[in-house]
Design goal:
Blueprint (H helix, E strand, L loop, with lengths): L1 H6 L6 H6 L3 E10 L7 E11 L6 H7 L6 H8 L9 H11 L3 H14 L1
Antiparallel strand pairs: 1-2
Length: 115
Amino acid sequence: MPTMKYLENITVDFNEYIRKGTATLRTEARREQTKDGIGTPQTAERSFQPRGLNIREDDLNKYGYTAGCAGCAWYSNKVGLHRGHSKGCRIIIEGEMRKTEEGKSRLEGARTRRE
């Protein structure tokens, strides 16, 4: 099986990569101009984009849905493309999470990923 050959070279532990601070680098493709007008694509890394707090459906059921938030609207009916939560929604949910020990722990994990 040809895919197994590639899997042998993966040395990153799932828990270390996914659960303990995955971060995404934003990139953009640029073309370098050449004589005949066809460029060679090159990638230029942008600034580091850490992932923030993942608002789960359980959080919404516990703390409530925010009116006017596209992410909450998607979770309420699960139709169409998944949308992210608005800043206002995140402020409300994070404020409620600060009142519980589990919430404080998750917020601390999100904060350390951002730093």
